[in-house]
Fold this sequence. Notes:
The protein has a two-stranded antiparallel ribbon. Helix 10 packs antiparallel against helix 13 (265-277). By secondary structure, the protein is mainly alpha-helical. The longest helix is centred in the N-terminal third of the chain and has 31 residues, at 5-35. Residues 1-44 have low confidence and may be disordered. It is globular, with a radius of gyration of 23 Å. Helices cover 69% and strands 2% of the residues. The chain folds into two domains: 43-163; 177-334. It is built from 16 helices and two strands. InterPro entries: TldD/PmbA_sf. The chain crosses the membrane at residues 12-35. Keywords: Membrane, Transmembrane, Transmembrane helix. One of its GO terms (molecular function) is metallopeptidase activity.
Amino acid sequence: xxxxxxxxxxxxxxxxxxxxxxxxxxxxxxxxxxxxxxxxxxxxxxxxxxxxxxxxxxxxxxxxxxxxxxxxxxxxxxxxxxxxxxxxxxxxxxxxxxxxxxxxxxxxxxxxxxxxxxxxxxxxxxxxxxxxxxxxxxxxxxxxxxxxxxxxxxxxxxxxxxxxxxxxxxxxxxxxxxxxxxxxxxxxxxxxxxxxxxxxxxxxxxxxxxxxxxxxxxxxxxxxxxxxxxxxxxxxxxxxxxxxxxxxxxxxxxxxxxxxxxxxxxxxxxxxxxxxxxxxxxxxxxxxxxxxxxxxxxxxxxxxxxxxxxxxxxxxxxxxxxxxxxxxxxxxxx
Length: 334
């Protein structure tokens, strides 16, 4: 080896070492951001498990050393019943306690949770889509009056219901949504709930009722648009595209040929929208998600054979409502 080549070799090895250290540090920072900016040693669930409401909600499932996957499974067992969307008072109370505990411990300041726990929390949220729909639309006085532990949950002739504040729902959805799978799970449930509500409203209901229903659809989906913007806002352009593309792929994964509206009204609306979403370029995915309420309301108006004026009122009314809800959600997620 020449005297000149030896220093160059040492410098090259030094550069490799520095590069490796930088990559390791960057990877560590990425993992830290994923789990949460205030993650304690021992796992993201540590602060949650210290909350008395979590102990109460989990009951016999509670252990102080639960891992995130184990905690997620315990959450589902405590809050979800054998039939989708149907709950006992005990399950609904457990869900309310968990939502408020998550909100208070990790629901602010952009903190998130481990993906394994995020997906389980999202699945539990999806099982309560009837309740979260009513909470986010903020027009049902029963839910508005009952968002405290002294008045919720409750049972009436239609079943068991649970209520928390709009802020809590948005904070918890934001907390889980760094995981595209978790966000897609919540959004899919909201889509199905919105489609069912639209399908249950006949054209004979009249313009005022029909436009209100379209606006309420926009209110819920627009709130989730706000969450998506908050999540992707700190990812950078490439990360946001990847996240949006992943969400769109998951939402459209099981798209099928839409059934006739007369045969399956809700299925027609869901599959018509999913067909439009299927195969969308990742760069356009977030924009397509933001257009969802308008697209579904447009499909609904055509299926109802409404006149062109009413079809426009449904589509644009839903769009405007979604934009307003998106802005409101961003304000609450600061």
